[in-house]
Amino acid sequence: MSFREHFRVNPGNKVRVEQMDASAVLGLSVKEPDPTLLEAARHQDMETMAGLQHKLFAENKRALLVILQGIDCAGKDGVVRHCFTGFNPTGCKVWSFKAPTLDEQGHDFLWRIHQRTPGKGEVVVFNRSHYEDVLIARVKELVPEDVWRPRYDTINAFERYLTSGHTEVLKLFLLIDKDQQRRRLQKRVDNPEKNWKFDPADISERERWDDYIKAFDEMLEKCSTEWAPWHIIPANRKWYRNYAVTRILRETLEEMNPKFPAPRDDISGMVIK
Amino acid sequence: MSFREHFRVNPGNKVRVEQMDASAVLGLSVKEPDPTLLEAARHQDMETMAGLQHKLFAENKRALLVILQGIDCAGKDGVVRHCFTGFNPTGCKVWSFKAPTLDEQGHDFLWRIHQRTPGKGEVVVFNRSHYEDVLIARVKELVPEDVWRPRYDTINAFERYLTSGHTEVLKLFLLIDKDQQRRRLQKRVDNPEKNWKFDPADISERERWDDYIKAFDEMLEKCSTEWAPWHIIPANRKWYRNYAVTRILRETLEEMNPKFPAPRDDISGMVIK
């Protein structure tokens, strides 16, 4: 059993995220792991990944798209900071999708997304994504149900298209519980160095907690496919969240097994003058 | 005297890169430094930079644009890999400019460049840049002199505009000598894991070495301005090149002195429920 399978939503399965333990520690041989040891293991994984990324770039045939979702304060920014710092930025880009601009609103919802999908050899991270169009768009009723509901199928078809080409799609949902969100929002209020992350809208969004949970459940059920399954990462504990995401990334890249292109016969023995 | 000043081309000065020592070790207190110790110091600089980058992003007011130029094999990719891995990719993007696409050719030479300049809070690296339009464009006569010659002034005005706004521009020219280029090209031929970096065009480009030197000299003279001076980095020795670039980056970010935004009065004492 791969490490990743502990987190995978099997296509067709029901999902109730509120019944899951956001503080769980899955896939480890010990029940009470030492965070310091896990962090050391994680740094080894990151070094391994740097080598794999270099080969993926040299190979120039395939790409990895990582999609991060999660409620406010779930740790999306933290995952990027901890798990992707260490990638060579030449072949790694992070795109954070905010409220669509007026220009973007003038197009279909996948228009801005497709512009940011990775080219061959690249690793791209979406911090939020097209999934917002079945999450915030639904919860805040930005569009009527007959507009957002067909998007599940549209998204599945879009991702199938990407994966039928050069792109591997890895979808990670960061799960925290309501009390953990409260603590993190409070820190943004209390710590002056974290004030800049506080958005008053976070308060009104928090009031819609139950609506978001419902939207998450349906998104995770409807869009966990054979070609691009969702993974639910217990994210109350940052050290475990970082460990799990890094390990899943490493496993994914190892399975892709990128290789340096075959040695070139046409230059063999050439002497540069 | 700042570390950076050792490398700066003072505006108005003559430049003859062929008379400079590409193996020089500048700005250190010892004549024969220990590469291992320098590498350790460099990693400390990188940790300091990660903190500064985080503040620059939080501040969300200013940006840093790093422009890398140098002849084939000068080490542009290596500098990105060694000196920018460790930046949080959320706020750091690298753009490698290759031969312009047909679409780009249909526009002025700064059109594709301006689309990639950094937004507030960002660090952006140009691996090659608009300077190719007074380098390869000149050497290979892709356009006549009456087209490329006015570009020096155009570039200076463009960079003045950027720096009068939110952007700091740091220009680094990596200097290697002709024999060092030969050795590095030979490695790309001999090492199967480096074959993918070998481009047969590199051979014909190498034959134009003297023309490139002339174009470099004029670019460095004409476009070293008070607002965006060039820095010439001796780059024959990779460990010194990496040390010098990292130290210059750190110094630049320290002088920018980014700060977390002021604590917000409006949320002081707020209790999250």
Fraction of residues of chain A in helices? 40-55%
Strand order of the largest sheet of chain A: 2-3-1-4-5
For the record, give the distance between the C-alpha atoms at the N and C termini of chain A, rounded to a whole number. 54 Å
Q: Biggest interface in this structure?
A: A-B, 42 and 42 residues
Provide an overview of this structure.
2 copies of one chain form a homodimer. Chain A is α/β, with parallel strands linked by helices and 273 residues long. The first copy, chain A, has a single domain, classed as P-loop containing nucleotide triphosphate hydrolases (Rossmann fold). Helices cover 42% and strands 12% of the residues of chain A. Chain A has 11 helices and 5 strands; from the N terminus they run H-E-H-E-H-H-E-H-H-H-E-H-H-H-E-H. Chain A has helices spanning 35-59, 76-84, 102-105, 111-114, 136-139, 145-148, 151-164, 178-190, 201-206, 209-222, 238-256, and strands spanning 63-70, 92-96, 123-127, 167-175, 230-234. Chain A has a 5-stranded parallel beta sheet, with helices on both faces. In chain A, helix 1 (35-59) packs parallel to helix 11 (238-256) and helix 2 (76-84) packs across helix 11. The longest helix of chain A is centred in the N-terminal third of the chain and has 25 residues, at 35-59. The radius of gyration of chain A is 20 Å and the shape is globular. Chains A and B meet through helix 2, strand 2 and helix 8 of A and helix 2, strand 2 and helix 8 of B.
